Amino acid sequence: MNSELERWLERRGVTVADVAEIVHALQLPYNPHLTMEECLESVRTVLGKREVQYVLYTGIALDELAEKKLLPAPLQQIMEKDESLYGVDETLAMGITNVYGMIGLTSFGYLDKVKPGIINRLNDKSTGAVHVFLDDLVAGLAAAASARIAHQDPKAIHYSEDGTKI
């Protein structure tokens, strides 16, 4: 059963499977046995975090208000143009990436630059839809879910207090 937040994402054209595909592509080089089911679980686990939910609700609501032209000036015009120096969308998305540490942040930077899959579709300005926040929030969600998988990798090297590998 889909959560309320999953319904919000789906209303904007994003499914958990879309995000899981990005997670899978990010982690597969490091974990060749990774399944889509594990990626789906990771995305849903990240979506279960309250701070992630609040960030997504806020960003989606701002995109929808901008689409309906309900934001005050100059914010409405900034959102309509998706001004490159605005940066609040990336700042909000970093709240999601930080849930699983620095690897989430570096993955977010990569995804924001490359824009794979659903992120690219959300970034398409020709549709008339406003996804100023959502494209970055999806990248942040994928980056956090990917980082979560990386942190759980049983093959990760651990070190003792004297610096030797355990």
TrEMBL record:
InterPro entries: PgpA-like_sf, Put_PGPase, YutG/PgpA
Single Gene Ontology BP annotation: lipid metabolic process
Superkingdom of source: Bacteria
Residues annotated as domain YutG/PgpA: 15-150
Entry GO MF terms: phosphatidylglycerophosphatase activity
Protein name per its UniProtKB record: Phosphatidylglycerophosphatase A
The organism of origin for this protein: Paenibacillus herberti
Taxonomic placement: Bacteria, Bacillati, Bacillota, Bacilli, Bacillales
